[in-house]
Design a protein that fits this description.
By secondary structure, the protein is α/β, with parallel strands linked by helices. It is built from ten helices and 13 strands. The strands form two sheets. The chain has a nine-stranded mixed sheet with strand order 5-4-1-8-9-10-11-12-13, with helices on both faces. It has a four-stranded mixed sheet with strand order 3-2-6-7. It starts with a strand and ends with a helix. Adenosine-5'-triphosphate binds next to helix 8 and helix 9.
Length: 330
């Protein structure tokens, strides 16, 4: 299997032990390891793919715990650095009773922001068949330069570049700065995945339709995906576009659904990029990715909820059987 290298932040989310409270009201918190790029790497490995993570952690108990989580899950930590001075990033996250997500980040600065270009494992980056990243690593130096260097090295070595902006507005100095920086690397990516909310944010328009999505197209892009939560996703290529429906499951926590979706997509195209140009095969891959996203919502937390290949097949086969019996009766 070709190597998928994911670059960016890995951190610990602290989530309240009870749901529907504000951060101040929470009686206690549980550790939930995360960080979108790290989740993507683990999603790939859980499905049987070959994954590595590049980033920086604090040389503290939390940092070593996170590196352990990568390796226990079969993700290479050869590109992980430890900072002697700064702590592993932490975020306190709650879903309040009004449905709003509340974040409080401890990054002043945290180790992930201090990854410098000279610390990069360039051999690992050069061996990537797919190089995946977000936008949080663009916010401050020296991590921003490390991010830009890695992208260039990966591209020169022939990797497919995959971008999921994963907007986290509270981390940026302003919305304008977020939009500008997210777009500053837009035309480098071969594959881009945005959520419906991100589409609205980037286009500065409430509309979530083909026209809005197509306004994000760039000349070198091979595949643009817009994920729509339980409704599935829409896909756009140079020659065709369409939609894939989501799967109905008992959702308890949507954290990590997007990362699971991306991991599944990358796993399925890493060894054969031509799938992107072939609509029937691409649709099969996207059904698989939607099933992965759906399964990830059925358990609390991101990493514990990422599915194995056989769990995905069970959902896909079950859905097919339900469809067949439906068409038989009708
Ligand atoms: P994240 O919460 O990780 O930031 P995201 O906003 O990037 O997620 P979503 O659109 O929420 O991405 O989810 C990605 C995919 O996961 C969707 O395209 C869909 O297939 C699946 N999915 C997400 N939520 C649900 C749900 N409630 N029920 C079924 N499938 C879901």
């Amino acid at each position: 299997n070709g190597l998928i290298v994911s670059f960016g932040e890995m951190l610990i989310d602290f989530v309240p032990t009870v749901s529907g409270v504000s951060l101040a009201e929470a009686p206690g918190f549980l550790k939930a390891p995360g960080g979108a790029p790290a989740n993507v790497a683990i999603a790939v490995a859980r499905l049987g793919g070959n994954a590595a993570f590049i980033g920086k952690l604090g040389d503290d108990e939390f940092g070593h715990m996170l590196a352990g989580i990568l390796t226990e899950n079969g993700v290479s930590a050869d590109g992980v650095n430890f900072d002697q001075g700064a702590r592993t990033a932490l975020a306190f996250v709650t879903l309040r009773a009004d449905g709003e997500r509340e974040f409080m980040f401890y990054r002043n600065p945290s180790a992930d922001m201090l990854l410098a270009p000279h610390e990069l494992n360039l051999d690992l980056i050069r061996s990537a068949k797919v190089f995946h990243y977000g936008s949080i690593s663009l916010i401050v130096e020296p991590c921003r330069s490390a991010h830009l260097t890695s992208m260039e090295v990966a591209k020169d070595a022939g990797a497919l570049l995959s971008y999921d902006p994963n907007l986290r507005l509270p981390l940026w100095p302003s919305a304008e700065e977020a939009r500008e920086q997210i777009m500053s690397i837009w035309d480098k990516a071969d594959v881009i995945k945005v959520s419906d909310d991100e589409l609205q944010f980037i286009t500065q328009n409430d509309k979530i339709d083909d026209e809005a999505a197509m306004s994000l197209w760039h000349n070198n892009l091979k595949l643009l995906l817009v994920t729509l939560g339980e409704k599935g996703c829409r896909y756009y290529t140079k020659n065709f576009h369409g939609a894939v429906e989501g799967y109905r499951v008992k959702t308890v926590d949507t954290t990590g659904a997007g990362d699971s979706f991306v991991g599944a997509l990358l796993c399925n195209i890493v060894d054969d990029h031509t799938i992107i140009q072939d609509e029937p095969r691409l649709r099969e891959v996207l059904k698989y990715a939607c099933a992965c996203g759906a399964i990830t919502t059925t358990k609390k937390g991101a990493i514990p909820a990422l599915p194995t290949h056989s769990q995905v097949l069970t959902l896909l086969n079950g859905a097919k059987r339900r469809k067949q019996s439906f068409s038989f009766q009708s």
